[in-house]
Each structure stands twice: as C-alpha cells, then as structure tokens.
Amino acid sequence: MRRKPGIAGLIKEKEQQSALSAVGEQIEADKNQNAKQLLQTLQSSLRDFASRHRNRINSDPQFRKSFCEMCIAAGVDPLSSSKGLWDELLGVGQFYNDLSVQVLTQCMRTRDENGGLLDLRQCLQGLRRARPGERLAVEDVERAVECLAQHPG
C-alpha cells in the first residue's frame, strides 16, 4: 500500500510549485518585454515608411489604400485617432475626417431629392468637383464613411 506524502513531501511539493510559478512569471515577463520591443520596432518602421512616402500617401489613392491595408494587417489602425501618430505624420486622419464632413454635406444637400442617400459613384463625382485637382477613389469615400461609423454623434 502506498503511503500519503508526509509534511516534508508536502513542503517539497509546495517549493516546486513556487519555483515553477516563478519561472512561469519570468517567461511571461520576457514575452511581454519582447512584444513591447517588437511593437516599438514596428511603429518606428511604419513611422519611417510614412515619412519617406508622405507625399505619395497623400496624393495617390491606390497607394493610400495599400498603406492603410498594410497598417491594418500589422494591427495598427491609421484612422483610430485624428490626433494620433498618422495624423501627426501624414494628416491621414484629418484627410478622412474632412472628407467625411464633405460626404455628409453632400448627403444633406441632396436630402430633398433622394432622402440623403447617394450612390457611391455619384458621391465621388460630387467630391471630385468640390476638391478639384485632388485624386480621390471610391475607397477614400468608403474609409471616410467608416470614420463616421466609428465616431457616431
């Protein structure tokens, strides 16, 4: 018949659990530190990329779309704050905020004709007339509307 562990056995088992717990906490702390370093590296790389390509991001709708998709794939929302990193570096947040105001203005202007519901392409045409010389794409209008959905009221 097997004996139950004695006091010495219980103390030894408790010490082993404490040692395992300490090792687990250290591993978790190391993982958190590594994740923070990776995030800082990612932010720095995106910041550098954004600085180098600022003019193209602001002027080329396809490149702007690709940049936003790259950021989102990396877990960074370039539109999350109008006072955040992207607005500071590029004015991207402000660009979409301004565009969303113009979308709303167009919808309100045509409310008597169509209840304020515009076809996306019709809205884009109106925006292009309001912003001559600026290259806008359907994706820009979609992102502007997404900004409105993220910041209701």
Automatic annotation (TrEMBL):
InterPro entries: ESCRT-2_cplx_Snf8, Snf8/Vps36, WH-like_DNA-bd_sf, WH_DNA-bd_sf. GO terms for cellular component: ESCRT II complex. GO terms for biological process: protein transport to vacuole involved in ubiquitin-dependent protein catabolic process via the multivesicular body sorting pathway. It holds the Pfam family EAP30. PANTHER family: EAP30 SUBUNIT OF ELL COMPLEX (PTHR12806), VACUOLAR-SORTING PROTEIN SNF8 (PTHR12806:SF0). Belongs to the SNF8 family. This is Vacuolar protein sorting-associated protein 22 homolog 1 (AtVPS22-1) (ESCRT-II complex subunit VPS22 homolog 1). It comes from Cladocopium goreaui. The lineage of its organism: Eukaryota, Sar, Alveolata, Dinophyceae, Suessiales.
